[in-house]
Sequence to fold (335 residues):
Amino acid sequence: MAAVSASAAPGAGGAGAGSSSPPPAASARRDFYWLRSFVAGGIAGCCAKTTIAPLDRVKILLQAHNHHYKHLGVFSALCAVPKKEGYLGLYKGNGAMMIRIFPYGAIQFMSFDHYKKVKTYCCLYWIVVIRWGKRKAVITSISGMTAVICTYPLDMVRVRLAFQVKGEHTYTGIVHAFKTIYAKEGGFRGFYRGLMPTIVGMAPYAGVSFFTFGTLKSVGLSHAPTLLGRPSSDNPNVLVLKTHINLLCGGVAGAIAQTISYPLDVTRRRMQLGTVLPDSEKCLTMLKTLKYVYGHHGIRRGLYRGLSLNYIRCVPSQAVAFTTYELMKQFLHLN
Fold:
């Protein structure tokens, strides 16, 4: 509870000297800080993913070369899915996504706020300090990995549901998918298929995303505070970015991060689909999957297939996520 300790420090010193307790406003900001931070991150994640749910579904279909859509491009696939499966087909798997993304977004944003206050340094930290001089890169990567590990089984189920096409359903719903994967794919280990490329990709993705947004925010507020910033509604002493600037910074951060980590995202999706794909025995490990995708489909149509769609989806997704979180921090008095 570093935030509580920091807030309470002045009051604690005064208490030792016989002074009165902290003012009610300060005390209110400390109450349930972790819970409020958790809720803010969860809402931010849900809003972001709901915004781009149709693009997410199409991306999964293209990444794994679903035989119904493998010859289509991004926009033609977006038009073909509603024709074949109805408009609700664009949101297939979104129920599992919402169950997953609330704790994921909550843990990621909340742990970012927590880890940046932790003073324990590790070897990775020193490497980054020496090479880049940026502690936040490590902090944000750790927060992203924490969220991924905790919510990965739900991501696995969501991908399986999203890959299904009308008339060819292997799973009838979220619970059935959980039961089937557990029974047929090695118990709990089955839910973590593809975790390695996820973890490897999360370090650059989460690190670059949060670091880029944080850097753009701090540079903008330092050099053009009146043009880009405004006082926070819950704490006038704290300067925050204007909403449209938040959206822009979040979009740029997402685009840069996705470009760096996209081949690992393709690898993860193919591994998560497992026995659903006919070539699953060739995609048992991260390296085998990377070699297989590169050997059979190349770079543009393999490792980076669907990247243009990912730009379309990640820019509004990250923009909405960061903007919603900043607004929720003010609404829940987290500044």
